[in-house]
Fold:
Amino acid sequence: MSCKNPFNHDITPADAPLLNVQVDGQWVQLPRGLNVVEAAKRVGKFIPHYCYHPKLSISGNCRMCLIEMGTPKMGPDRKPIIGADGKPEIGWIPRPQIGCATMISEGMGIRTDSPMVQDCRKGVMEFLLINHPLDCPICDQAGECKLQEFSVEYGNEDSRFVEQKVHKPKQVDIGERIVLDDERCIMCSRCIRFSREMVNDDVLGFTQRGSHTTLAVHPGKRLDNNYSLNTVDICPVGALTSKDFRFKMRVWFLKETKSICTGCATGCNILVGSRENVVHRLTPRENELVNSEWMCDQGRLGFHYIHAEERLLQPTARVNSTTLPVAWDDAFAQIRDRIKSYKPEQIAIIGSARMTNEELFLLAELRAGLGGNAVLTDVVPRTGEADGILRSADLNPNTAGAKLFQISNDGKNLAAIKDGIESGRIKVLYALHEDPVGDAGLSESALAKLDLLITQKLLKSHSTDIAHFSLPGASFAEKRGSMINGAGRLQRLNKAIATPGQTMDDFEILLKLRATITGGNSLHTIEEVFKAVAASIPALSGLSLSKVGDLGVEVAPAAATVTT
Amino acid sequence: MPAPAEYRLVFKHIDEPGYTNDIECYQRHGGYEQLKKAFTMKGPDIVNEVKASGLRGRGGAGFACGVKWGFIDPTKNTKPVYLICNADESEPGTFKDRQIIHKDPHQLIEGMVIACYANNVHLSYIYIRGEFPLGAKILEKAIAEAKAKNFLGKNILGSGYDLEIYVHRGAGAYICGEETGLIESLEGKRPYPRIKPPYFPAVLGLYMCPTIVNNVETLCDVKHIIAMGGANYAKIGKPNNTGTRLIGVSGDVAKPGYYEFEVGSLTLGQLINDVCGGLKNGRKLQAVIPGGSSSKVLRAGEKYKIKEKQADGSMVDKEIGLEDIPMDFDTMAAIGSMSGSGGVIVIDDSRDIVSCLANLSEFYAHESCGQCTPCREGSLWMKKITRRLADGHGRVEDVALLKSVADNIAGRTICAMGEACSWPVQSFVAKFKNEFEAKGRAGKGPAVAATNGH
Structure:
């Protein structure tokens, strides 16, 4: 269920015929259907641009991608004149052309860096800067600003402008999550086109004209759609900034870790931007087979809980009516000592489809050690509404994995678990990354009947307060592992920051708990766990975490039953 | 040599005593007879007559009308074809089309019906600038009259041909005269000119359908081509510069006004001195803008080298002065300017030439649509520099700066507005360098330090 872009200027069909094109003097073969910017990119030549975006309609307004081009000279016989090198002679057009709107054709010549091209770029850079405020020191875009970068690369070293700059609205509140600075805007119209073409929410537009042109939201409307923050990503300057991120961190301090969003079953590929064990932002990472270059605002902003006040930072054990810190090994040993006196039928496990495959695999092994299928197990399903863009109706990121390892029973066992606890038949509950009350729907009074309640989650709640053992796990940003999205694509999570306090990576918790309870352990690293996972599931055979790669692999097209 | 007499074809009845703009008057003067004649012809035959006439567009660019029509082959496309009359007459110095619209609207409508019939168009628009409210009313009335008499509407004059014409008023923007900007505006959007390729009107025009955009005068000429035949029309004027031309003269002449001449039949000097009664108050000529404000300025006393075709076909080099320039498309282009929209602006020696340019630059800065970078930023920058120079706050280096800014615009924009705003600057600065430098030397420099000046 890859993302449906209105345009894909950077992608050509596999059977597109090859054209002979001369790029900066070199003849190369490139597929028909590419524009000059994309064609040059394929041969390692970068043509700077602002308004052009491979996934949006072509506007051609910034004029930064002006190049020199030519077509084959025709002889009297209407056939190309062949030069001494056996290649067509090119008749160069004296006027520069925009690379974004010029499609390559047979025998075409392109000059990406000729004196004319350099002169054009210098001119455009100067024009873009004369009315641009010099507020880089307080601008969030600084460090990832195309105006800064191209100014250094292609601009002039000093200014010839001695007039008053044009002043425009600043700090315009145009949406729940977006602030606009009109003086920084270079009128590239990417945000307008994105909102119109990708999200069908045509709320942005220009007012006024000439140099006074001003980006604005339609009167009475707001840029509040669930994809609004993508406009911040594609804004080449600091005109659109994220309220959530602005003034928080200089981007050049951010470490970027490739990972996936765990907000729903789509599994958008992301970069986790962190510094010194604090996550500051998530941004989409290109993966044409999943999310293209986008992600929803819900997913993007849904990470703040990992630094919440209520985050559990150490394992605790309840002694009589008080809760005390406990050493991990002591906790594991005490759990083993207490759990072994119960029959499998007296034990229930509520796992989570937000856990990784590795964790689910180890949980399944642990369940086998505790008595196998007699141990009632399930996960908590979460459904919402698919939006036809990226958001899946399945709000769990790894429903497919939970099924694969038979931890999930689509939530059908939750009622039986509830009945069992209320009737006193079930005495032990192990709940991982789901709150027995808040998520799984159990009552506080039911929980009070349990002999042994083990919680393994991130945030403090009534359940963790009364748990006999509370095992603080790790968030998606603090662990490695894999998940299978709704389309059956196996993708990797990577560790961006260290687990805080005495919290522990969940695969390690499960590994140690399993070793303590069932004895013996041949697995130590996440790679080893994955190998064991791959060996147990035919669809994954032969895979390793490194083979999964940054973009994932398709393993089970029909793995998901919750369709998006 | 005295100026030749006016050749009134399109303006034949304009300002004639007793001539009114209603349909009865028009018909009393032979109106809609050419439409009846056209209906006896086949569409492609009319297109061929227009091709044979050599008619060049009267809006400014002078593109051959028959060739433009030829881009559209109604037999090959499945989409409807639209024809738009460009009545967004906004080029400073140009006031010919409004005479037709106000005083002889049925001539335009007859020309349009013929042009639409020739190109198998069934829906047509007159895009009229917002500043012409009266013109729009007159056209609405004329259309209603024509419909009542079945010169428009269903089954026109029993021919089986249907056509509707609608008047669409602009909201007051020069850029709506640019044909793709006009089309965007007609579609209800900001008049941002489209990128070409791929949006050539003949292929992807109004509502992404093949579209012809013709000037008011051009469409009137079509009627006369039908009346006399393409070959006869081509005998008026000069080869490749056929027909008559409406010329509007404004500025420092004794008798400014609108005239109609055979193309190339008179020189610029004859126009100014004989037709327009010479300069006002005995002043001397300083400069002429020959074809609307965006055409390159001509300086009094300049000499131009042209090639003149002799009777035997050979070409002879010839040097001519400003007053000897024949008023035709090709010579105006050969001397580095253009006949453009036919608006001649005469500037006498009492005018501060720097202020003249500042005035033009102010217009273009105000009218830049703001879509593409060079025109958006450059037009306002040029306005600020020229205004400073004119107001005594210039610097000597501003002269070179002005030229450089203009050079960075022309040829690098989406539409011809880039040239329109930079050609005056380039030509004024090049031809009146001393005047500009003197202003710069005498200037005190910028009055207010640049804010944020980087």
